Amino acid sequence: MKKFSKILIIGLVVxxxxxxxxxxxxxxxxPEKDTPVEETPDKDNSTEETSNGGTIKVAASPTPHAEILxxxxxxxxxxxxxxxxxxxxxxxxxxxxxDSGELDANFFQHKPYLDDFNAGNGTEIVSVAPIHYEPxxxxxxxxxxxxxxxxxxSIAVPNDTTNEARALLLLETNGLIKxxxxxxxxxxxxxxxxxxxxxxxxxxxxxxVSRVIEEVDFVVxxxxxxxxxxxxxEDAVAKEEQDSEAAQTYANILCVKSGDEDRExxxxxxxVLKSGEIKQFIADTYEGAVIAID
Length: 294
Fold this sequence. Notes:
Blueprint: H1 2-34, H2 40-49, E1 54-60, H3 62-77, E2 81-87, H4 93-99, E3 105-110, H5 111-121, E4 125-133, E5 137-140, E6 154-158, H6 161-173, E7 178-179, E8 192-194, E9 200-204, H7 206-209, E10 218-221, H8 223-228, E11 238-239, H9 246-249, E12 251-257, H10 264-273, H11 276-286, E13 291-292
Parallel strand pairs: 1-2, 1-3, 6-9, 6-10
Antiparallel strand pairs: 3-12, 4-12, 4-13, 5-10, 5-11, 7-8
Helix pairs in contact: 3-10, 3-11
């Protein structure tokens, strides 16, 4: 009886061992069944290979630059490029991220500002194409009649070097102040030599100017900030004219780091931004606040 029990125990051990072995073999086969899942990266790679140059990353101001770029996405996709738009609300970071190589291009500034930024920051960013022009304009705040401006009126202007000068030149064109000869695009309120109405020039960051419109008599705004504030250039009390020298001097430009001008993806982006489709979008959407450049 003991001998039979011993044989029975041995038999059970053998059966259990075989079961465990089969179970282990079954588990080893599982990765083979899951292998097709690992083919997904290969599919992604094949997609990238058909996209000519992959992704173009562009820094832009939200309005109108990012909006214009958004319209360019589908046109670039037809050429095999994906456009990634990174929005910034200031005028400093877009240049820094392009100079560092973090992003491929930026779209938010004009040439005088770019030149001043490069000189002051040691960056090497270049323009590859002028895309559009945004007339700088004077908008009513607590006062509405620019031709009958009150003594000691306050006017808010952007405080960055070139845009402040541009604002002051516009005030000069409208007979409100006179600026020292030769000050040009570097003019500040310290260069005002005649101020018959004792106007107070309130210098603010460009993004903050529209926020004080109910606290000052007038504001001078860049086109993009005017649009963001819900203002229309047709309602401005004065503006730079479309056929003026400013239209060329202050054209908004697509920029890249020096040496990247001849990249095929950048050329494709320029071609799209200069296309008839984009020009029509600009004309239909911004009603004169943004003007496409041929």
